Amino acid sequence: MKYVEGLHCIKCAKKYEADPERYLCDDCEDGILDVDYDYSKIKRDWSKEILKNTSDQRIWRYTPLLPIEENTEKPKLAVGNTPIYDIQVLADELGIRKLIIKDDGLNPTASLKDRASAMAVVKAQEAGAVTVACSSTGNAASSLAGNIASMGGRMKSVIFVPDRAPAGKLAQLLVYGADVVSVKGTYEEAFYLSAAAIDKWGWYNRNAAINPYLVEGKKTVSIELAEQLNWQMPDWLVFSVGDGCTIAGAYKGLYDLIQLGFIDKMPRLLGVQAEGCAPITEAFKSNEKLKVSKEDTIADSIAVGKPRNWIKAVRAVRDSEGDMINVSDQKILQMMKTLGEKSGVFAEPAGVAGLAGLKKAVADGIVKKDQSAAVVITGNGLKDIKNARKAAGNPIEVEPDLDKLTEIFKKMGVI
């Protein structure tokens, strides 16, 4: 870790060595740690020109900004390099000047969380571990299982999910060969069981809200976006928010780029939660300590009633002079269909919640009509077919008779 100076607690600022198994501050409740870099050394050794000539298109192209040993074996999956789309028709519909969609649902296991899981596989090896475990509502689990599987059977994943996890995500886990524990309870109960098991058997902890290195994997989404936009950042950068790790990671990536002089402005972050599970939004708006929330939303990937990375998330939004907003499940379903019809991008409910929140933020005057925004789609719609069908409706059913089909088409206005 050539450029890593160490870790510090975001609450008390106590410093620690960057041990791969150092997760939390010893002295603070909610003492989440952050990774510190020597930016002067990175600036001396690394540049946009060097990056431009780097052939590896995966997240490892940003190694100077990652807390890893250069020679540690990387997972084989091609994590990162997901596409961006400039979609003017959606910008016009939302009422803003410009809209960029970054489809991180096209990562290998179909979610942004591949970025964190790839990092977990590397750090687990550096810690001398062969088994990596986590609790998850689905995407973190499947991304970990897939990245572990890419190591060819030399490592193992143990996954804890609440029993409401969508069938598509469970299928992924089982196909990847993970040991899957379906917990009859909430995500919170699955988390505590995973924590107890990790402690008992000494597995490496992939839970992103605790492990400070995983945020460093997630931050590559904003670094990558900046590079794809030729370092010209939009006014707003929008994310759905569950445990707070992704938006905190996005901020960290942007902060890194500013320190290096790669970008000259910090986009304002818009964090979006579902109305049925919005504890971080409440903490942000009230400026008070987080209160545990119910987990009542179709957007399972952001249904985290007791998020552990809420402090980093709130600070990221505040430090960027951004805002937070909540959206209903109905608006999420509507936006799944709108995004699909207008862009060809298929997003799961949590993946599209950010875009639904942006639409509401424009209507509320938070985002101005002359501003630009980029929205990161965090997960693919094939993860949750049940809710995709709710959003899209049913196909036309007809007997194999052209006259009857013509009659139906006329009634529906197809012809």
TrEMBL record:
Residues that, per the record, bind pyridoxal 5'-phosphate:
139, 378
| Top-tier EC class | lyase
User: Per its record, what are the GO molecular function terms?
Assistant: L-serine ammonia-lyase activity; threonine deaminase activity; threonine synthase activity
Pfam annotation, one family: PALP
Q: Which cofactor does it need?
A: pyridoxal 5'-phosphate
Q: Which reaction does it catalyse?
A: O-phospho-L-homoserine + H2O = L-threonine + phosphate
Q: Which residues form a coiled coil?
A: none
The protein's job, in short, is: Catalyzes the gamma-elimination of phosphate from L-phosphohomoserine and the beta-addition of water to produce L-threonine.
According to UniProt, the name of this protein is Threonine synthase
Provenance organism: Halanaerobium hydrogeniformans
